[in-house]
Amino acid sequence: MVFKSALTSRFCERLSHFTVCITCIVDLKMNFVKKLAESPDLNSIPSIYAYSTNPNESSVSDPQDSIPVVDFSLLMSHDPVLQSQVIQKLGNACKDWGFFQVINHGVPETLMKMVIEKSNEFFNLTDEEKKDFEEKDVLDPIRYGTSFNSKKDKVFCWRDFLKVIVNPEFHSPNKPVGFSEVLFEYSKRTREVAKGLLNGISRSLGLDQSCIEKSLNLESGLQILVVNLYPPCPQPELAIGIPPHSDHGLLTLLINNGVCGLQIKRNGKWINVNDTLPNSFLVNTADHLEIFSNGKYKSVEHRAVVNNSVTRISVVVANGPSLDTVVRPAYELVDDERFPAVFVPMKYKDYLEMQQGNQIDGKTCLDRVRV
User: Fold this and answer.
1) Cα–Cα distance between 221 and 216 in angstroms, integer?
2) What is the pairing mode between strands 346-347 and 269-272?
3) Signed CA dihedral, 256, 258, 259, 261: sign only
4) CB 112 within 8 A of CB 102
């Protein structure tokens, strides 16, 4: 009886330990990275954050050529010669890089800094305050979450996020104080920049200036503002901020808090995006511009890496068609004999749900609508 009692005791002890481990894993999946990173005894990352491919692999390098710079004020110029030159430069940037910097865009530097500041204040709210905004569905107007799709991700990203739909209807968290007003003004100003760029891109494709705007119903276009928080990571060589992916929509405008971490894929190699011009937007072409241009302008894979010393915050504004718009290659860019359509038509809402509702993996979502 004594032997049986001792054996039962050891079994119960192991079962209890196993239960605790399982509970820890469940709790870990529910936790946010910011809270995990602030743990005083965190010296290594939990296995659920261990990314299989080293994001700092040897193929990463600094760009040999400078990322193109587009002067927005010249794009808006009444001088046809200057305007023509910058439209050509814009088209080349879309074709050759898929990434470019935009300067003299008219968005006040104070507003850009305030967006970063208020975003940081949001993440510093208490867990209880932020709980009101936790995500439930990929098309929720306000989504506060972690990783990319925590319900389906097998490996978690070292990232917390806030996603807010700011057009065609404006939404915003009601905290911190003043956040809503800042987001409203910032979303309005960035929409104007995106519209101006898309008008120029339309002309660079040989189309009427308003072709993209009218064909894709940009007046009611979906605009999503995403704030990404990448806390310091004790093992940055094992973790990933966001895996390689391309963006949905037409153009994405990005700013950050001055901390590097973005890498883009160019000519099959990963390059660091380090030095950007002060008060500039980093803009990248997205999947639906590739579809609309019938493959002439490509969306570009990019990813975010993390570091072990300082928090990185990026604010991304994704600009797309209206949700009900069926996106297809522009009729003017399709010739059944020489330039057949290389994508099948698909409603933007369906594409968005397909991409946001699955694991993130390069350009596999765009590949699903290729002919």
Assistant:
1) 8
2) unpaired
3) positive
4) no
Q: Count helices and strands (H / E) in the chain.
A: 11, 14
pLDDT the model gives residue 362: 84
Pairing status of strand 269-272 against strand 99-103: unpaired
Q: Is 273 exposed, middle or buried (0-12, 13-18, 19+ CB in 10 A)?
A: buried
Nearest C-alpha neighbor of 87 from the set 209, 243, 256, 179: 209
Q: How many CB atoms within 10 Å of residue 135?
A: 17
Q: What is the pTM of this model?
A: 0.89
Distance CA 142, CA 136 (A): 9
Q: What's the distance, CA 118 to chain centroid?
A: 19
254 forms bridges with which residues in the sheet? Answer: 282, 316
Can you tell me the distance from the alpha carbon of 164 to that of 183, in angstroms, rounded to the nearest whole number? Answer: 9
Which among 30, 232, 50, 37 is positioned nearest to 145, based on CA atoms? Answer: 30
Cis peptide before 168 (omega within 30 of 0): yes
CATH topology of domain 31-367: Jelly Rolls (2.60.120)
Digit-coded pLDDT (tens) for 154-192? 889 999 999 999 999 999 999 999 999 999 999 999 999
From CA 30, how far away is CA 33, in angstroms rounded? 10
What sign for the dihedral angle of Cα 75, 261, 296, 252? negative
Q: How far is CA 337 from the centre of its chain?
A: 36
Domain boundaries, the chain: 31-367
Backbone angles phi and psi of 196, in degrees to 5: -60, -45
Per residue in 19-53, pLDDT tens?
Answer: 333 333 334 444 899 999 999 999 999 999 999 76
